[in-house]
Amino acid sequence: MSMTRVALVHDYLTQRGGAERVLLSMVKAFPDSPVYTSLYDPEGTFPEFAEIDVRPLWTNRFGSLRSDHRRGLPLYPNAFGQLQVDADLVVCSSSGFAHGVRTDGRKVVYCHTPPRWLYDESRTYLRPLPVSVRAVARTMASTLRAWDSRAAATADQYLTNSGVVRDRIRSCYGIDAALVAPGTAIDPGAEREPVRGCPSHFVLCVSRLLGYKNVDQVVAAFEDLPDVSLVVAGDGPERAKLANAAASNVTFVGCVSDAQLRWLYGRCSVLVSASHEDFGLTPLEAAAFGRPAAVLGAGGFLDTVVDGVTGRFFAKATAGAIAAAISDLLANPLPRQPILAHAAHFTEEAFTHRLREALSTSRALSEARL
Question: Which domains does the chain have, with CATH numbers?
Fold first, then answer.
C-alpha cells in the first residue's frame, strides 16, 4: 500500500477525545496523508495536529461552531457532501457526517458510532444546546437520517471499535462492520510532569465534562468515600456545576498535557468512569501503568476491561454503585501483571497493524469484485 494515495477525513478537530487519539494513530499509519475536517481549533484539540496537513472545510469560518460543534449539526451533511477527495483510498473517521465525502477511490469508514444526535432517543446529546438549535435538529432529523443512511451505503467497507458499536451499525445501516480495536498512544516510559494541587493518593477520572459522561455521579460517589480523594482531569460545560456540587475530597485539574496525564496515571490507585462509552480508551491507558479501573459494565468497556482481572464493573451509573466498586478495588487490589499483559494487546502499533491488515483485505475484495 506504499504507493497508494491515502486521505483521512474526520468530523471535527475541536476537542481532545478518544476519536481524536485514534485519528492521530491513523496519521502515524499513513504519515503523508492530509486530514479533511469540518472544524479545526488548534487550541482545543491535541497539539500534534499542528504538525499535520489539516484542511478545514468552509464551516470553519464560523467561530461559534468551533466553540461548540453541535450548533452546526444541520450544516455538516452539506459541507461533507460537497467535498470531493482526490485519493486512491479515503479513510473516514466518523461519529457524525465525515462518511458523506465523495471520492473516485475506495472509501472505508472507521465508525466510532452512528451519529448520537440522530439515533439516541433520550436526546441527552442535544440537551445542553439552545432551544432554537434543538428545534432545528428535531425538525431535520428525519431528512438527515435518510441522508446518513445513503452516505453509509457509499462506503466500500465499514470498520469499528467495539462489539456494541458493531451491533449499532448493523441496526442503523444494515451493514456488518469489521472490528478493529484502537490502541493507546500513552507511553509509560515517557516524560512525566507533576500536576499541582493533587493529593498524594487518589482515584482518577479522565473525561470531558459533559452531561452524558455521568461525571456528576462519580463526584457524588465520593460523598460516601470521605477518606478517599478523587482527581478529575478534563474540562467542559459542566465543570462549574460539578465543582459547586463536589465534596472537599474532589479536585478538578482541568485539561492536562500528555506528560501530566502520564503522571496522573502513574500516581493514581484506580481509574473510574461511569459513561456509556463507544470504546472506552481510558481504562486501557491506565492499564498500561498497571492501574485497575472501576467502570460501568456496558458499552465499549465490555471490550476493554476484564471484570475481576483488570478492573471491576458496576451495573448502574449511580453514586452508590460507583462507590462500592471503588471500595472493592481499594480493599482487594488486583495483581498488576495481568493488567499490564491486557494493555499489551491494545498498543498503537497493534492498532496500526490491524488497520493496515483490514484495509488490505478491503482492497483485495474490491479488486476481486472488479
Answer: 6-183+347-369 (3.40.50), 203-345 (3.40.50.2000)
